[in-house]
Automatic annotation (TrEMBL):
Belongs to the ABC-2 integral membrane protein family. The keyword Transport applies. Its main location: membrane. This is Transport permease protein. GO terms for biological process: response to antibiotic.
């Protein structure tokens, strides 16, 4: 006799999404670091007078102009390195995913819900950073909106895949937090948080532009200035997103 496992209905998936959304909104730490910290960082940087003055080394741009794309990517990296890994590892550690695997509602529904929520939070944070830059410091909105949006979506996809991969390879939430922190700071450096990518020495810039968020930072800069992002930068971000997704699918375990 053949046993047929019922597939979860769309309404059941929506119910999981709603439940996870309520839990997500009850995490003030995650909400702050994803939604609040990047625009707050931009607002604080803009208070420094030197950040509001044109810099010949930046092609006549002000540092605050350059840091808007950086803070956009900060939220994306927080999602992938700090928010998702300990949450997914915690679900596995507590046996939640294993218990779900015995029901018609597959654990993949919960994973999908988390990716939707964290992806949406990263996009909202990006919008907040753009708004702070525009309203507080007269930073222009991206001149090439389509190129900017495509780059941002690819970066979010890479971050979500990174979060799933890190969550897949660790056993506990505590270890996931430590591993995520080890990844977090190099990724922040690659965005140009401490030194704009365009100001880095050639060799360093070449290395950084091979990383997902370094390439994304350069592509966002180009779209901000009104040009279509360089195909090489888009290819790097898309390639990392695909590679991390394949790795996450290959190594993710529900228990």
């Amino acid at each position: 006799m053949t046993t047929v496992t019922a597939s979860p209905t769309a309404s059941a998936r929506v119910a999981v999404l709603r439940a996870e959304a309520r839990l997500f909104l009850r995490e003030p730490g995650t909400l702050f670091w994803v939604l609040g910290f990047p625009p707050l960082l931009l607002a604080i940087l803009g208070l420094v007078p030197a950040f509001r003055e044109a810099d010949d080394g930046l092609g006549g741009l002000r540092p605050i102009d350059v840091y808007v794309p950086v803070t956009v990517l900060v939220a994306v990296i927080v999602v992938g390195a700090q928010a998702m890994p300990p949450l997914l590892a915690g679900y596995r550690e507590r046996g939640i995913l294993r218990r779900m695997s015995t029901t018609p509602m597959r654990p993949s529904a919960l994973l999908a819900a988390q990716m939707w929520l964290h992806g949406a939070a990263a996009l909202v944070s990006a919008a907040l950073s753009l708004a702070v830059g525009r309203l507080c410091y007269d930073v222009g909105l991206p001149d090439h909106a389509l190129g900017y949006a495509l780059t941002l979506l690819l970066a979010v996809a890479a971050a979500l895949a990174l979060g799933a991969l890190l969550g897949a390879r660790v056993r506990t939430a505590r270890v996931a937090t430590a591993v995520g922190s080890a990844v977090f700071f190099p990724m922040l450096f690659s965005t140009g948080l401490w030194m704009p990518v365009r100001s880095m020495p050639d060799v360093m810039a070449a290395v950084v532009e091979r990383t997902p968020f370094g390439a994304a930072a350069r592509a966002l800069d180009q779209a901000q200035a009104g040009g279509w992002p360089d195909a090489a930068h888009l290819a790097v971000v898309a390639g990392w997103a695909a590679l991390l997704t394949v790795a996450a699918v290959r190594w993710f375990r529900w228990e």
